[in-house]
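Field: sequence (string)
Field: structure_tokens (string)

Example rows 1 and 2, in order.
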Amino acid sequence: MLEAGVSSGLSLVNPGADDRDLVPYTEASVVCKGLRNRDFGSLSDPFAILYELLPNGVYLERDRTEVIFDDLNPNFCHKFSFEERDQQKTFQMTIMDYDIVKKDDFLGLVRFTPQQLESATNGVLELEIQSKNGKISRKNGTSTFYVERLMRSKEPCKIGMELGLGADCKVESKKKIFLCLSRSTANSRDYVRIFRSEPMQIPSKKGESFVLPTFEVDSSTLTAQDSERHLLLELFLEGGRKGNHRNIGEVVFKVGKLDNLRAGESIAFFSGLSGDGRCRPQLVFPCMNW
């Protein structure tokens, strides 16, 4: 179940801000599919770097995503953002395979302009991934950008959350669990991922409860300043070095629902973590920092 303590009179969608505090920007969420595997005995650990191509030919790093381990179809949580002054600029997203003991491996690249992103049909732009020489091959995979024009607060708040598993939740021996939180897009057809926790071993002994470490989500990223958006919470059993993660529970609810919750109220959802029935995980909001 989901439980939240929300102070009366404060809005989760736009806490303590008026229109003068909001700044327009373009948000791009990135999903890649079919990337090359550069690792032996496991899968590539991809991350993406955003470069601005300057007039003098220099590549200026602007941003980068998190690393997603053992995944050839990464759904990145980190968002790329563009402002009005970026409209006519050209950007390159380079996808790399993270390595600890040696140099990171190149996986591919795509080039685009923010204007190209904003003109995408239904806010979805798919680009085939190129090799270093600019050649396109199916072996490189594809990248999909989910694009939205949003408003964010100049001083967004941080919302702390934690997931707790009750004593009725029993995990398979030697397995790990992680959660993902996603937000619906403006066209309501797709979800963009906004948080993915680190995999954690949880007690397999029946009768033990467990709480994943508290994580924080930016309020603007969580809500997109829209109470009608939906949030998707998914619970996964980690699939190991081959990336075959199994969805064992999920719940969908509106952002606006959170504004109406009070301590002790909840939204129940079930997971398949119990061998003799389905258990009820609990997403808790221990702190609302506004």
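Row 2 begins here:
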Amino acid sequence: MSFGNKNFHSTSGGICPVTLSNGNKRLASCREELELSWFSSSDFPSGACAGYDGGGKRRRTQGFCRMVSGDSSKTDVGKFRITPTNRSGTANDFMDDNTPSSRVVKAGWYYGSVDSQGLRHGRGKTEHDDGTEFEGLYVYDTMEGMGRFKFVTERQLVPVPNTSMGCVHIHRVIEKSFEGNFSNDKPRGKGIYITKITDSVPQGTCGHNGWSGQVKSIEVIYDVGYHNSEGTPIGEGVRFSYCKKEDDMAWEEECIRLFNGKSVNVRLTRNYGEWLCECLQIQPPVTPSW
């Protein structure tokens, strides 16, 4: 969420606002400026779970989650069927466009611990019938704490600009996931969206469903940032992009500045991206393997 035309910098007297024109905010030069881009919002009440206490002093960046309390009635189960009819209430979930929305609990199979009422509670994994998947912490049937949400894999036929490649279309596979902190079934706090795009062409006989073949290029994108109570990215972030084509000897790496989850088309050094990850207590991405 934008906070108008104000940016912040540190001075000997504390934190002071600096008015800049929209779209031309300078890069944060210290951790305080990063945290103010994440916490300076009506989404975070003053003094509550923010990066600063009531006296203007910075606290350690933290996530937002309810802790799994010691419940002696919690038991581990091997496999448990999840349906809207055997769950109480509703749960928030990702829509097809990857934005959070309230909807009925997804049906699927759950592996992990449950409480005395059969609710997912503790560490577990749910494989939903629609192809999505969550593995991580649950609190009373709600995704709460660190975890990984896997979206449905997309498969597309992309027209080739010319036919020199010996085919009319490229087979494109898009895999996407979110790794980070969850609260009330939504991303909350630090996290990374990971997108892998693989383009290939048939080589001889295609494999299963005709989607495997000779790989022409792979792009892996890591969007690192902070997320508000609605599950949307807020403030400063960074994109690590790795791209490699069939004949390339090495991966092409690029770091791009993000603001509110969107690219502002400003290239960054990797050192800056690693520093932002350090402020979020996130391990910086490493070069993928082919």
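free_text_note (row 2): The CA atoms of residues 125 and 152 lie 16 Å apart.
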